[in-house]
Amino acid sequence: METPVHTPNDTTTPAITRVVVMGVSGSGKSTIGALVADAMDIPFLDGDSLHPMANISKMAAGTPLNDEDRWPWLEIVGNELANTTAAGIVIACSALKRKYRDAIRSKAPDTIFLHLDGSLEVLSSRLEGRSGHFMPPALLASQLAALEPLGGDERAVIIDISAGINDLLAEAVAGIRRVSGQ
Ligand SMILES: Nc1ncnc2c1ncn2[C@@H]1O[C@H](COP(=O)(O)OP(=O)(O)OP(=O)(O)O)[C@@H](O)[C@H]1O
Ligand SMILES: O=C(O)[C@H](O)[C@@H](O)[C@H](O)[C@H](O)CO
Known about the structure:
The chain has one domain: Rossmann fold. Helix content is 43%, strand content 14%. It has helices spanning 29-40, 53-60, 67-83, 98-107, 120-128, 140-146, 165-180, and strands spanning 17-22, 44-46, 88-92, 112-117, 156-160. Bound molecules: adenosine-5'-triphosphate and D-gluconic acid. Residues 25, 48, 65, 70, 94, 96, 135, 143 line the site of D-gluconic acid (GCO). It catalyses: D-gluconate + ATP = 6-phospho-D-gluconate + ADP + H(+). Pfam families: SKI.
């Protein structure tokens, strides 16, 4: 006879690890997010691929998004987090303002926000060194102006992006495991 996976007394369900890698343009969300997901063996979704086409065109033309542009996108991000059927999911999404993170949490309350935090100097040099991306480096100032730091009451990990990729990856995974209690 096969051993049942759940016995009648086993009321625990495995926790799902939901992570949003947040931060301004050029902070490394796509790079670190994909590596974190790989290391934790869960899927990765780049929030850039969830934007309505009009948002991509607007940014590419050098105009920052406003709240109205971002709401439909944040709803998609929240739904992807809430509806995952995997053991977890990592989504790269700038989530710059507190109200954006609240909107995401309204769909997926247990989301952990991993903020890739960096100075203007480091961010500028990363953006200047990047090629083939729709986001113009000139939009960095508007991204930093919109950024609202994580509050002490938010489920979060903050890391300084000045380190190398391997160190950031290790720090990020350890932080997520600590916060999620896994
Ligand atoms: N720790 C790091 N050390 C050196 N280079 C890095 C590091 N993290 C990311 N990069 C590089 O910095 C650039 C920006 O990274 P990435 O595209 O992942 O940022 P992003 O936050 O996803 O940006 P955007 O929001 O504009 O899509 C890329 O060229 C990437 O290879
Ligand atoms: O909220 C925003 O202004 C946007 O999401 C941006 O952050 C871009 O998506 C990203 O930085 C470019 O890849």
